[in-house]
Structures are given as C-alpha cells and as structure tokens.
Amino acid sequence: MEHFDVIVVGAGLSGIGAAWHLKTLCPNKTFAILEGRDAIGGTWDLFRYPGIRSDSDMYTLGYRFKPWREAKAIADGPSIRAYVRETASENGIDRHIRFNHKVKRANWSGADARWTVEAETGADKRIVRFTCNFLFMCSGYYSYAAGHDPDFSGRDSFQGRIVHPQFWPEDLDYKNKRVVVIGSGATAVTLVPSMAETAAHVTMLQRSPTYIVSRPGEDGIANWLRRRLPAKLAYMITRWKNVLMGMYFFHLTRTRPQKVKQTLLKIVRDELGPDYDIDAHFNPRYNPWDQRLCLVPDSDLFEALRKGKASVVTDTIDRFTPNGIKLASGKELEADIVVTATGLKLELLGGMQVAIDGVPVNMTKTMAYKGMMYSGVPNLASAFGYTNASWTLKCDLTCEYVCRLLNYMDARGFKQVIAHRDPTVEEAPWLPLSSGYIQRAADILPKQGTKQPWRLYQNYIRDLLMLRHGRLVDGTLEFSSPPAQAKPQYALAAE
Ligand SMILES: Cc1cc2nc3c(=O)[nH]c(=O)nc-3n(C[C@H](O)[C@H](O)[C@H](O)COP(=O)(O)OP(=O)(O)OC[C@H]3O[C@@H](n4cnc5c(N)ncnc54)[C@H](O)[C@@H]3O)c2cc1C
Fold first, then answer.
1. Of 309, 310, 341, 493, whose CA is between 20 and 30 Å from 106?
2. Gap between the Cα atoms of 265 and 275, Å rounded
3. CB of 291 within 8 A of CB of 210?
4. What pLDDT shows up at residue 486?
5. Nearby residues of 353 by Cβ (< 8 Å), 6 or more positions away
C-alpha cells in the first residue's frame, strides 16, 4: 500500500490550491491528489452549459498567490478552468494527481494514527488502497453523479428534450427553438441570456423570484491598476477592495435589509422600465442574502428581457404535457426544450464514508471546528468556502491553517490532532441560507456551534485573524501520539 503524509481528495479549485500550499509551506511532506474524474478543474470542468461563468469576481475567486490577469472580472468557465490548470502545471502539481480515483471510504486506525483510504478506479471499479497521516477533503459540496431533478408529473409525456445543466449534451441544438428554463438561480440567469442569442424564445419559469443584481463584467479600477502597477500588487489591492466592498454590502443587508431591498428593486426597475411587473417577477419573499444573490454581468439578462428574446413567468408547475408545461394558473408554456436548472444535490466529503477503527462515523452528529475539521474525527480537514463571498477566500485560509497545523505537529512530534466537542456549546445549522438546496440537505450536514471556534461567521477578516494568526493550541484541539510510538503524550492547552 502506498503511503503519503497527506492525501488531498479532489483536483478542483480547492484541491489544486491545497497542493500549492503543501508544496510551498510544507515542502518536505509527500502528498497525492485523488481525483474521481479524468480532469483538473472540478466545477469549472464539469459544467459546460452555454454562457457558464463565475458569479463572483475573479479577484476574490482566484487564489491569493496567483494574480488573475484577464480583463474580465466575471469570467467564463473555460478561462477559470485554464487558470486552475495553469496553476497545476506551472507548480508541478499535476504530477501528483491520480485521476479516475473515486474515494469511497476512509478508515482511521487509532493504533497507527493513519487513514486507510479506499478508492474505486478503472472501468471495473477496482478498489485501491492508500494510507496517509492526514486527509484533506477538497471534494466540493455537491454530487457529481446527480443534480437535483424534481420528479415533475407527466415528464415522460413531453415530446421535446429535457436537459439538466450539470449534464449538458454537446449535441443540443437550440437555434430557433422554444426553450423553457426552470429555475431562477445563478445557472438559470446565466443560461437565459446566453441561449436567447439564438433560440426562438427563452422563458425563465420560476416558482418565486430571486434578487438579481447587475454588475460590470470588467472591473475598471482593477484594469487601471494592472496597467500601472506590478501584477501582484494590483491584484492584492483589487482583492482587498472587493473583499471590503462585499463585506460592507453584506453588513448592510443584515443591518438595513429593507433599505437594501428597495435599492435592489429600484435598480431592476431602472433596467426594465415602469411598465414591467417587478413585484411579480423580481421581488423575493425573503431579505437580501437570506439566499445567495444572483449576479448578472453587464445587464445581460435584462437586455434579453428588454429585447423580447426572453421572458419571465412566475408560477407553479402543474405537470408536463406533450407540448410543454401546464402551470397551476391554467396557462400552458409551449416548448421544444426544457432545461431543469433546479439546482445541485449537496453532498458532504464527496460521498466518502468515514470510519474510526472500523466504526462508521455519522457526520451529521459532528460539529464543524473552524468550519473545516469535525469533532471526534482526527487528522481530517475539508475545504469549504463562504456562502456570502467567493469560495477561494476561505479555502486559501483553510489551506494555510492546515499547513500550520502539520508543521506544528511535526515540530512537536505529534501524530494526531482531534477537536473535542464542548457539550456546553449549542448546535446551529451549518449553512445559514434559506435556499431550497441547503434546506433539502439539512439532514446530511454536520452542525456548527453557537460560539467560537465552532461558529461560522462567514467573515473573511475574522477568519484571517483566527486562521492565519490565531493560536493552534486553544484548549479544543488535542494533540497526541498513539501509545506505541508515544514520545510527547498530550499537549492539551499546554502552551
Ligand atoms: C455553476 C457553478 C458556478 C459557481 N460559481 C461560483 C462563483 O462565481 N463564485 C464562488 O465563490 N463559487 C462559485 N461556485 C461554487 C464552486 O463550486 C466553487 O467556487 C469552487 O469551484 C469549488 O471548488 P472545489 O475544488 O472546492 O470543488 P469542486 O469544483 O466541486 O471540485 C471538487 C473536485 O473533487 C472531486 N471529487 C469529489 N468527490 C470525490 C471523491 N469522493 N473522490 C475523488 N474525487 C472527488 C470532483 O471530481 C472535483 O474534481 C459555483 C458553483 C457552480 C456549480
């Protein structure tokens, strides 16, 4: 069995970032990346629907260590994929990746202070095993095998084509076709203007509205700075500008939700004119940032609506019919193609089963420590980004923290670290959004706690101070070595 100091699971944005941090901050550590698919890039390789792009800016979605050099701040999928691949190749990370290794199980041996990781590989799903001292899960947050696809009644009777954005068929020809996109999340608002360019008409069919904000696709200040300053400095300034602006806006949504709501609705009204029924189609029932805000670059969605190439219908699906979709209002939407942009299926730790000394761990009973480790589970961390800001901001900090932890353990001769749950800390839902896909997954997610270090503040500056500069030995983490190899035994709150 091959052994590594660290096994990283996943070669997406987070996994490649984790590898960079390991190479840079823990140069003596051996590591491998086990990747279930045959490509680097994760989300940015999987999703191929028309118009696929980020919905947060690349100065914060990009890595802290690698400037985003393109003019567009809201970037298309292929450019992001190229950025992740370039990071892997220019740092020799690609050599560490084992493609087509889908990790299924990990068992921790307390006696050896090691994980045995089982992965399926090849067409015959052969099981291969590796051991490692530390397991770093960079497997994203949703199932790659299936999206969320509600079982609409009459679906089989529909004579057109039904497509889920996660599995976009290369051969789909929608030119001059009538398209209905079900959903109003980030994917729907991306697809609608993009498909509307050549389709006969695109209808965005939503059960209820979402907040939609338009932002310039290019960041004028970032591009101005890049022309005048060294790339790294310009990137750092823009990154901080966007972090602070994002935090300020989020703070306003918490402290003055009605004011923010009115401002957002006014912007949509200015885009679509006084005659458009904003209340019916763009006025959500919840407050801004109770669910993720949808960003559209350069008003592309509003432009498609203004030109009549696309329209929005707010109604409930009664059933599919041979020609389209019958709505609860009695109206029928005729369609040649229906796109079910109904969302993702959340999945924790890439669907991997975790066991400790052969006893399965119920991850929903664990509490997340600093949003990355899990109570009672030794030597395992996961990269999980923000819900109210770019994913990579948190993942970069998580990677730095994991490297600090590994270096600390090496220096003191500790083999294992475990976060012990504090029985006085109350449980709270892990993710603070009211979005359907998060509520549906409530029973598969771990919990967060009501106070530090168990509470998730979704706040970059707070996390930066805690993860980059905070004490590792905090009375919650227990560092130890298994008795057979024990030199220093316990160092609980000793330093
Ligand atoms: C369409 C779309 C747009 C998005 N846009 C944004 C945005 O603009 N801004 C933002 O902040 N976030 C966005 N997100 C969230 C996005 O997923 C993250 O930004 C980021 O790409 C996640 O990177 P990751 O590497 O953590 O996970 P992923 O990109 O999901 O990569 C995980 C990798 O792990 C592999 N893997 C999973 N399970 C296993 C296993 N058991 N064994 C082996 N390998 C495994 C997968 O094959 C994959 O390669 C978006 C998500 C989607 C779906």
1. 493
2. 14
3. yes
4. 46
5. 104, 105, 106, 360
Q: What per-residue confidence (pLDDT) applies to 462?
A: 96
382 within ligand 1 shell (Cβ under 6 A): no
pLDDT digits (tens, 9 = 90+) for 196-227: 999 999 999 999 999 999 999 999 999 999 99
Residue nearest to atom 12 of ligand 1 (CA): 391
β partners of residue 8? 33, 136
Cβ of 12 below 6 Å from ligand 1: yes
Contact 215 CB / ligand 1 (< 6 Å) = no
What percentage of the chain reaches a pLDDT higher than 90?
Answer: 91
End-to-end alpha-carbon separation of the chain, Å? 37
pTM: 0.95
Tell me if 67 CB under 6 Å of ligand 1: no
Q: How far apart are CA 203 and CA 164, in angstroms?
A: 16
Q: Is 4 in the pocket of ligand 1 (CB under 6 A)?
A: no
pLDDT reported for residue 484: 63
Find the angle CA(103)-CA(144)-CA(179) to the nearest 5 degrees. Answer: 170
Query: Hey, whose CA ends up nearest to atom 30 of ligand 1?
Result: 140
Testing ligand 1's pocket by substitution, the residue of 33, 105, 121, 139 carrying the most ligand atoms inside 8 A of its CB is 139
